[in-house]
Each structure stands twice: as structure tokens, then as C-alpha cells.
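Exam revision sheet. Question 4 asks you to relate a sequence to its structure. Input first:
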Amino acid sequence: MKKQRRASGDGGTARHGEIPRVVRPAQSTKSFGRTELLIAGALAVTTLAVYGQVISHQFISLDDDVYIGDNVMVMGGLTLKGIAWASTTFHAAIWHPLTWLSHMVDSQLFGLNAGGHLFVNVLIHVFNTLLLFVFLKRVTGARWGSAIVAALFALHPLHVESVAWAAERKDTLSTFFGLLCLLAYARYAEKPSRKKYALVAAWLALGLMAKPMLVSWPFVLL
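Answer key, C-alpha cells:
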């Protein structure tokens, strides 16, 4: 009888004279708390500090003239005629209407100020870095491992071309939609539904309209 009473006391209610212990639920490894927000802030600030210098850069002779400087439709800004052109043209031997539209918006805002165009690339790259961190943290639960991978993604020299070259907007923009597609698929995999699956398809479609190379993205989802 004594053993039974002791066991029941340890399992739930406190014995006479003892201070009851409050058992706090364990924090989910997928949660996004204060530490994760600090890491995200550090990633954003570091990425901006490294790539922010592109504000003083100029367009280059390789493709920047084809995409922006000598492109009458792009330099005309965002217009109905421009939207129709972007939706149907294979100018520069590629179909990527969203990329054309983003260049049109930049041209309307910044004209031929290359620094403005390039800084938009930087901002997209910052968002891509944060999306990658959020995605990895969600699917692995590894806070610091996800942060390290996101930092390597942000600062790897291979990304200099994509960020510091105006004509490579298609690369940063397609990556943005591709990462949103991965996040949407992670939610779908946890609790499948038609709406979640449709969101995955929508992000993928937008990514393809930024750069057709994302046609291989479904294999990543496997």
C-alpha cells in the first residue's frame, strides 16, 4: 500500500508538505521564437552589409543592355502594352514574364540608375536567405544548423553573379518563388489538403514564369 501511495504521489499530486512542481510543455523544435528572430535579423543585416555596395555599381555590357538599357518595352515602365509584351515575348531567347515585369517596375522607379536595380536584387536575396532559414528550421528543427546553411547560402561567392548583375534578376526571383514553393509543400506534407496543394502549384507556376529552369523543382519535392 505504501508503494502504491508513493507512486501515485510522484505521478501527479504532491505529497503533504511538498511544493507542487509546474511541468512546462517542451518547446516544439519547429517553433519560431526570439532566438530565431535574432538569427534572422543577423542574417539580414550581414547580407545587406556585404551586398549593399552594389548601389554604387553600374550596368555591364553583357545582357544588361538587352534586358534594360536598350529595351524600349522595359524602359517604358509598367504599362498594359508592356504587360502584354512580357506575357508573349521570347526576347533574349527565354520566356519569363515575371522577370520582365520586375524590370519594368524597376525602370519606372529608378530609370537607368543601375544602383536601384541592383539593390532590388539585394533585397530579394535577403528574403531568399530568410526563407531558406525558415524552411530548414521548419523541416529539420535544427536551429543553428539551419542558420549556418542559410549564412553559407547568403554569402557564398557563387551568388555574387546573381545579385550584382542586373540581368540575372531571373535567378534571384525564381529562387524566391521556389523557396515559397518548398515552404508550402512542407505545410502540405504535414497535413495534406487541396488548398495547400494548390498553393504549392501556384508558387511553382510563378517560379517558372520567373525562370523556366525551375521545371526541375518537382524532383526536389520528392
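Marking note for examiners. Residues 1-12, 22-26 have pLDDT under 50 and may be disordered.
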